[in-house]
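Bit of a strange request maybe. I'm writing a small parser for structure token strings and I need a real example to test against, not something I typed by hand. Could someone generate the tokens for this chain?
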Amino acid sequence: MKKQKRRVFTLFCALALALTACGGAAPGSSGQPESSPSSAPQLSGVSVSLYADFSAGNPDGEAGGRVKRKTVEMDAAPSVEALADALSEWSGLDFSLASARTDANGAYADWSAASTLVRGLDDREQKEDFHFFDSVSLNWFMMDSLARTVKANLPVKTVYYSMDGGKELRFTNPEDMAAQGLPALPADQPYEGSAFFVTHSGGSSGGDDEPPYWDGLDFGPNLEYSEEYKLQGDPGDYLNAAEAGKRVFETLRDGGHIPNYSKDKDYKMVLVNLDTVENQECYLYRLDGSLLSCAYAYQSGGVYYQDGGKWVLSK
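Reply from user aminoacidic:
Good idea to test on real output. This should exercise your parser:
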């Protein structure tokens, strides 16, 4: 009987030792299997800088307050197409590209036929901060903004533009762009920026030796004047566009309608079109240095400015 009990006790101890060896937890452990850190990289957003470039031929660009910057997050490394799409979302304009690529020589962007640059504004609803009244300013804005954004985010120094699968880039207003120094852009010619082409266009005077009609008009200490739109005919008894531009500037300045106005800052009033505002024929201007759109009704003398995408009469 004692021998049988001893045998049972021996078997019980052996069984306990076996269980401990197979499934027991080490002292101080939780008894749970340890999780090993994942070797897969953890993806995070990529910050990119978008640029809205309203320089439109002005060489001081960013220093003159004509360039806006916005930082956005992307899920992957930026490409030319992704940057163009981001500019579309920000501006409300269509920066779509048919194709794009980069190589050791630079970045190549083939503009889509549906893009605003190729197709024009049509009846597209424009955002408040991205409102254009003339095709010249629109063209420069789209080309300058994409080029600046691509160069800022990709390892390239040169940008080439084309359309229709690699053909030269043509505009809806070739005569106006010719006056700006760029009637068309060959696909193998780098896009040097609006300031480069306007500077090499010879200016907007009537001829090589003929000064503009506003030469000699005193615009004050911090205002310049130029014209992108060519007026036809004589204004008669009304103010000419340059005189009206000066009056618009003074009226908006004195009325406090120029955002962040400073007497130490340089401004430029640019005639961009002749159109109807509130059923009145007006000179349309862009005030560089403030990104403000304004107008002068030359028959009534009314001065208008854009606020929230609507025309407001300055009082």
